[in-house]
Amino acid sequence: MQKEDAYNFSIPKRQSPIAIFLIVQKLIEQIIRQFWPILLVVILNNLDFQTKGSSSSEDPYMTRILFVLGGISAIGSIIAYFKFYYYITDDEFVIEKGLFQKKKINIPFDRIQTINFEQNLIHQAFNVVSLEVDSAGSNQKEISLQAIKREEAEAIRAFIMTEKAKSQSVVQKETQEVIIEEERPNILMRLNPFDLIKVGISQNHIRGLGIIMGFGFWIFQTVIDFDFIDENNPMDMVEHELGLGSLLSFWVYLILALIIFSILISLILTVFQHFDLRFFRTKAGFKVVSGLFTKREESANINKIQFIRWEDSILKRIFNIFQLGLFQASSAAVNIRQSINIPGCYADQINTVRATYFPEEANLNYSTHQISPLIIGRRVLYLGGIPALILLINAFFHQSVFLGIAALLWPIGIFFTSRIFHKNWKFHVSEEGILTENGIIGTQFTLLKWYKVQAVKTRQSIYQAKKQVADLYFYTAAGTIKIPYVPLAKAQEITNYVLYKVEVDGRSWM
Questions:
Q1: Which of 184-188, 231-235, 337-341, 348-352 bottoms out in mean pLDDT, i.e. has the lowest?
Q2: 38 has pLDDT over 70
Q3: Is residue 172 one of the residues assigned to a domain?
């Protein structure tokens, strides 16, 4: 007997009692996320009162107000838990909820795109999962169960996917078997600790650097508020202590320290997000399981994947790894968070995914094309000329030689990078699909099958219309692929051919 047979999904059920703690936890996170400036002011004011020896009567009422609001919201969330029910009818997933106004959500099986699991530390301690159902026709996840037993969640997913497969038409019968999840999927890759280090080092460190700079700025402002340094010109103190000869070294060491700390932050975030990442090939398509404190399980059905994208960078090339993205049709697929991203993939694993998504690709003949060199002048004008003009104006008013030199060098740098951008932008066209590649210091590849295209559009600015070039757009259920500055005749030829292929191809994009 299959494990889903042990559950009667037609009976309305509440979530696990653990959901109460998770609702309160999420509430606290939302309060902190939305009101952190107020909380920061309260904390700094309390520190200021303690530093200056103020009495407790001077403590502002804001703290008490926040606690009262938090308590009221927590009580409301607990009551909402007892008003939340879920069940399954013959062909629908149903949610009933509402504190003061009852709300019923019915999602037919044929609208359900993906069912994913997530586990934070509380989930793992009690062997429960958060179940998220993503459906077509909505801009967000319509069903999210905070905590149910993992066995029940797996049974729900298996039941829905099985019933969904049974209801498919005869035209889709040949792909029916790929909808049902297999018990023992084939593992394609697993990130070991050394792989995690490579992924962390090769990540974009701008985010980590931004966190450090923001935290440093907060510390700096806090120090100023407590009058530990001169607010008017604090760098005079540094220059006085170090001397003019050592000031340059101070900045060099500071920049190096920021780079090192940003790498460490990237490593830490990589471990948190991708710890023990496992990438599986299943009958349905692919599945990814990863996470240290919060374990997330995401699935991508092969017939829902609209296009795939992989990219490298200078650091990734050193380690011979790629970042892989599977973009599947879903209500929030245009959000990068909803696409499935696998870091640290090697070339053979990329080829396996390509062969699964586009089996006939290896036997196709591709014609290679480049975009128009006119894009170089446009990039130099907008990315080089306008910033250079702003720098020149600032250099004039501030009498700065440094800004003047930067204003002269900036367009030159943009010119050379634009030449590289043009040289690297290629698109390879075949009878069944297209492969694009572009980048300056790294290369991004995108593979798309024609029958996945929902619409094609060419767009021209006034300048492009005069020069007989156009931007070419391919719209899919998972986002848009753009090719800039295509010769107009070529863009029209591709547009007509793709529209023809979509019309005569009997396969569904889903």
A1: 231-235
A2: no
A3: no
Q: Are residues 470 and 499 in the same domain?
A: yes
In a domain, 181, yes or no: no
Cα angle: 333, vertex 334, 336; to 5 degrees:
85
Q: Can you read off the two tokens belonging to residue 485? A: 């500055």
Residues 393 and 326 in one domain: no
Domain boundary among 403, 422, 441: 422
DSSP state of 399: T
Give the C-alpha separation, 299 to 318, whole Å: 30
CATH number of the CATH domain containing 132: 2.30.29.30
Provide the b/e sequence for 384-401 (b: ≥16 CB within 10 Å): beeebeebbeebeeeeee
Q: Exposed e or buried b for every residue in 266-276, given b needs 16+ CB within 10 A?
A: bbeebbebbbe
pTM: 0.74
Q: Are residues 231 and 289 in the same domain?
A: no
For residues 106 and 37, membership in a common domain is answered with yes
Asked whether residue 209 falls in the same domain as residue 270, the answer is: yes
**Residues in contact with 159: Cβ distance below 8 Å, sequence separation at least 6, in sequence order:** 4, 7, 9, 88
Domain count, the chain: 4
Q: Count Cβ atoms below 10 Å from residue 35 Cβ, excluding itself.
A: 16
**Beta-ladder partners of 438:** 444
Q: Which DSSP string do the residues of 286-337 spell out, in sequence order?
A: EEEEE-SSSEEEEEEETTTEEEEEEE--HHHHHHT-EEEEEEE--TTTTSGG
Q: What is the per-residue pLDDT across 357-399, written as a single tens digit (0 to 9) for each?
A: 999 998 999 999 999 999 999 999 999 999 999 989 988 888 8
Helices in 110-149 by DSSP H: which ranges? Answer: 121-126
The answer to whether 306 and 327 have CB atoms below 8 angstroms apart is yes
Is residue 222 domain-shared with residue 289, that is, in the same domain?
no
Which structural domain range is residue 416 located in?
A: 374-422
Helix (H) or strand (E) holding 157: helix 150-166
